[in-house]
Structure formats: C-alpha cells, structure tokens
Amino acid sequence: MDYKVLKFDNQDGIGIITLNRPEALNALNSTFFAEMDKMLDAIAKDISVKIVVITGEGKAFAAGADIAEMSQMNEQQGYDFSQVGQNVFNKIENFKLPVIAAVNGFSLGGGCELAMSCDIRIASTKAKFGQPEVNLGLIPGYAGTQRLARLCGAGNALYLILSAEMIDATEALRIGLVQRVYEPEILMEKVLEFAKNIISKGNIAVQTSKKVIRQGLANNFECGSKLESENFGKLFGTKETTEGISAFLEKRKPNW
To answer: Domains (ranges, CATH) in the chain?
Structure first.
C-alpha cells in the first residue's frame, strides 16, 4: 500500500509508525484511519517486528480529528466516523504487540484518544494533552470518554472533558495519563531504549502479559485472575519459558 499520511520504519525489530501530515498538525482524517488499519495488518504479518512505537512528525503528535472533514457531516456520518475511529483504536489497544506512544507535541482530541489506545505513553516536556471537543459542541468520539476515565479516574476525565482544559506533560504524568516525561531532544532515544529493553524479554511472555491485562480489564477480577492462571500454565509448555528458567538457574542470559 502507498501511504500518504503515515511513514513506517523497522529499526531492529522496533516498528516506528510516524504520522506524517505536519502541515495539518497530523489531524486525523479518513485517510489516516484507512492507512493505520492497513499498516497494523502489515505489521502483524511481519515476524521481525517485536514492538510498535507511534509518534508524530513536526510539533504535534496529533492535534485532533480533521474538523474540516467533519464540518459537513450529518448525524449518520458522524456516527460512522466515530465507529471508524473506535475500530482502529481498538485494534491498536488489542494488537498482539506492545504499542508505545511517543508523544512529541500536541496530543489533543482524537490525538489524545490515539495516545490512550496505546499501551504506554512516553511524552516530551513540550507535549500538551486535552479533550477540547465541547468547544465545538461535541464530545470525544473515539472512546475518549471511556479510556480517559479508566486510565485517570472519572473525576480527572470529567474535569478535562467538561472544561476542555489543555494540560502539560507534568500534569499528565501526575494524573497517570503518561508514564514518563523527557526533554524533546532525548524523547525518541529514551523511547527506543525502553522498547529495546522490552524486546530483550521473552517475546511470548510479553505478548501474553499484554493480552491478559487487556482482557482482564474487560472482565471482573475473578475472571481476570482465572485468565491469568490459564495463561501462566500454558507458558510452561513453551521453549521460551524452559530457556528462561534454565538461563536463570545457570546464571546466564537467555537465548531466546
């Protein structure tokens, strides 16, 4: 597929997806959703990719949905546009590989929702976060009302969504929206360093951890705990676990 608004680079098993529409602050339009959907399918088939990083070109991660595209929508078209975005972001959230958002700048509206669909968010000190949809007489449409409340609590979600207030990376870190904050000049260095650390672990164990956490959150504690036990047991039948335990007992690095 010939991508117009996305770029992809495989750096030693780290698949880097870059939103490449800086002139529009990487605003999310129909082309973006179609390309992201296809790119995720392609990455899933590439066994050399062990982890995914999503970032933005220029001064924005993604400054929201494309308002110009939305301006002519009717009720049904608005619903459909919301569903398209939710489906793609659900695909990111449930992707078999870990996905890290390297939030380099503005992460607003749909951009914040994109970041929240990733497993981990690492931000630049220049990053700004917010859900400003009420300024347009709208609400978040890509499951932002749901993910923000689950990540940061209902109070913080209501505060940000009802006020449309934009917060900086320090405040995002305080409320649990991001996990780490770095100066912009070392952001990608630190993200790639973290990604390499994850790649050095047992690949099946990493993917299973993500799956169990994600599926567990969608169920109650008892169901999630049972799912954990089932997957914990299954790993004992893998070569990876055998090698990991042997390497530990023999005081050497595992040969995955």
So the answer is: 6-199 (3.90.226.10), 203-249 (1.10.12.10)
| Six-digit token string for 137 | 């007489």
Query: Model's pTM, two decimal places?
Result: 0.96
**Of these residues, 35, 69, 113, 250, which one is catalytic?**
113
The CB-side HSE value for 244 (13 A sphere, CA atoms) comes to 14
Candidates 35, 75, 133, 185; catalytic one: 133
> Quick check: is 113 catalytic?
yes
Q: Mind listing the pLDDT tens digit of every residue in the chain (256 residues)?
A: 689 999 999 999 999 999 999 999 999 999 999 999 999 999 999 999 999 999 999 999 999 888 989 998 999 999 999 999 999 999 999 999 999 999 999 999 999 999 999 999 999 999 999 999 999 999 999 999 999 999 999 999 999 999 999 999 999 999 999 999 999 999 999 999 999 999 999 999 999 999 999 999 999 999 999 999 999 999 998 999 999 999 999 999 999 8
Mark whether 193 is an active-site residue. no
Q: Which amino acid is at 180?
A: R
| Token digits of residue 88 | 């793609």
